[in-house]
Design the sequence.
């Protein structure tokens, strides 16, 4: 299963407890995959998607919010592409109208504006709701590349308004998302590992977050070891061989118990070494806050070595 699919599996199991957050998430799903259609002059509302998880979540949110069971139909996708299209519709006019009001879609409906251009900001006033909204956006239109290969998370939007709304909400959480146009759609994306981690935290994908972090730390360790091994300058030789051993210890601890299990003082040193694989121990000590003298940092590094050897924690 792809990394994206794992994240979606995880977040599709989350149904917000509060009405406001459930509405915010549904508005994201609806803006990505919703549609209107008139029946005898009354507007009806529905969701159409090729992703079964979006269909499931849409169905559960509608049931929670409006107490009504929507009708789900499944059709084979046309042409040669394999898969299904899931269509959820609210059958009776009353619950359709209720949902239209709750999602604040009255004006779009009165224009029979088939593409909803963005979600209503009134639904996105609290942080909790903005997080639920981002979860709905990722579920409906997001993807995340395998962190072994590349750090790339993207959310695809049909309209510039929606893309801008997504970007703004992400920016409110300190995420520096960029946008690019691709085949007539707007892609909002993140490229930095730590920002992707933050995003996964916001949408409560905690298992995926840990998997992503583990891959990232191991990749850093490997890169740093390689970089150190490749650095063969003679006068750096001694520093480097010590650093290689230290990185080896740190990588081993990460595999055995995870770096986050280390006591704070040792964890700080471990992360500093990962970040700066090619400086001397003394310089490393000076980089800490507060700085540590040569003997202080040697002592901590010795403890790390002992833990890596499985002697004690
Ligand atoms: Zn909320």
Sequence:
């Amino acid at each position: 299963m792809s990394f994206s699919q794992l994240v979606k599996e995880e977040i599709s199991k989350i149904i917000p407890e509060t009405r406001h957050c459930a509405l915010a998430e549904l508005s994201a799903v609806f803006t990505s995959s919703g549609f209107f259609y008139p029946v005898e002059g009354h507007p009806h509302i529905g969701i159409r998607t090729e992703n079964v998880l979006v269909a499931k979540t849409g169905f559960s949110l509608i049931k929670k919010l409006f107490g009504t069971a929507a009708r789900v139909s499944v059709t084979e996708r046309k042409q040669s592409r394999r898969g299904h299209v899931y269509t959820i519709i609210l059958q009776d006019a009353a619950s359709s109208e209720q949902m239209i009001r709750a999602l604040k879609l009255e004006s779009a409906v009165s224009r029979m504006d088939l593409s909803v251009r963005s979600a209503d900001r009134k639904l996105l006033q609290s942080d909790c709701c903005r997080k639920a909204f981002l979860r709905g956006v990722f579920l409906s239109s997001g993807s995340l590349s395998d962190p072994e290969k590349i750090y790339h998370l993207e959310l695809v939007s049909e309209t510039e308004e929606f893309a801008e709304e997504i970007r703004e909400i992400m920016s409110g959480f300190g995420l520096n998302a960029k946008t690019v146009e691709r085949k007539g759609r707007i892609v909002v994306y993140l490229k930095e590992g730590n920002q992707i981690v933050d995003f996964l935290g916001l949408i409560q994908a905690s298992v995926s977050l840990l998997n992503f972090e583990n891959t990232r730390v191991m990749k850093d360790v490997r890169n740093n070891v390689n970089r150190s091994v490749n650095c063969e300058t003679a006068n750096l030789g001694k520093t480097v061989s010590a650093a290689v051993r230290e990185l080896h210890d740190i990588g081993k601890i990460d595999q055995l118990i995870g770096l986050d299990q280390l006591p704070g003082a040792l964890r700080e040193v471990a992360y500093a070494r990962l970040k700066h694989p090619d400086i001397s121990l003394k310089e490393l000590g000076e980089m800490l806050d507060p700085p540590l003298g040569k003997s202080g940092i040697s002592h901590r590094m010795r403890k790390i070595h002992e833990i890596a050897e499985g002697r004690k924690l």
Summary: The chain has two domains: 3-202, 206-308. The first strand starts at residue 34 and ends at 39.
